[in-house]
Write the structure tokens for this entry.
Amino acid sequence: MTRDLFDDKQFLASIAYDEELAVELIDAFLEDAPRRVRDLDAALEAGRAETAAKLSHSLKGMCGVVRSDSLSRLALEMEYAGREGQLDALREKFVRFTDTLDQVAGLMTAFKREH
């Protein structure tokens, strides 16, 4: 299950085992993801499905870079729900996304301490 949340081995392999780069990418993710989540939350509050879909798409890419399959899948589901104007479904997935993001952030923080 942990590998699905944050696959540190695959992540390191994808960046040629450059631990310094890994820490930089994780720092960027941990700084940027909460901002995008806040923007997505605001779009949901305003009922802006198209904007929410675009923000979800952006999050999906970020999550892929750091090898979080769980977050990538949830972001993809949010993107599709937004494209289809299904705000209620998107909101439900958003709650799961934010809960999962908290878990992933903890794993990434532990990874940083080790590297």
